[in-house]
Amino acid sequence: MELSEALRRRRMTRNFTGRPLDPLTVDTLLTAALRAPSAGNTQGREFVVLEGPDQTARYWNATTDPEWRSGSRRYPGMARAPVVVLCFADPTAYVDRYREPDKARSDGEAVEWVVPFWFVDAAFATMTLLVAAADRNIGAAFLGNFRGEEALRFALGVPDRLRWLGAVLLGESTSPDPPSASVSRPRRSVEDSVHRGRW
Q: Per residue in 45-61, pLDDT tens?
């Protein structure tokens, strides 16, 4: 598939068949994600891959509660995703990298992280994973980090130095998969979003 077609077709899937994905396919998607740009080639993004109902249940149990699960119209379809990829960022890796001679400030002061590169890089890798899934006709959805980071870290043995960005659900999509209400919001045009030369 052409990149432009993969970008056009990429959408958030919220209803999965539950059919397992080939592990080689999952590895191919993760390899693509790891090719995303990384500031200073730090590569401070890590993934925890949960496969199959026993493993993916750990994600849902840590980040939701029974009340939410019973009240969510989309939970049953999302919970059938056979793969959940958890995206983590390593702030320490960037702090250490930007102390090295080729990245350190000339005045010797510590870098002021106005925009934390660790989250930028984790987001780049996540978006690459989503586009790679679209390229292979695999359903995917990004779910943000709203709750349960500490419970998830504990359940999976994730080191304290890592920060959780969110989760990517992967699997074969099925119908009905009604789009989010957000889809009805008009897409901003190039003219509305791009300012040339100045605002």
A: 999 999 999 999 999 99
What CA–CA distance (Å, rounded) separates 46 from 30? Answer: 10
**3: pLDDT strictly greater than 70:** no
Contact 79, 15 (CB under 8 A): no
CATH 1.10.10.10 fits 3-193, yes or no: no
Q: Which residues contact 151 (CB under 8 A, 6 or more apart)?
A: 62, 63
d(CA 126, CA 85): 9
pLDDT for the residue numbered 20: 97
pTM confidence score: 0.89
Q: Among 25, 8, 18, which Cα is nearest to 133's?
A: 25
Report the 10 Å Cβ neighbour count for 5. Answer: 11
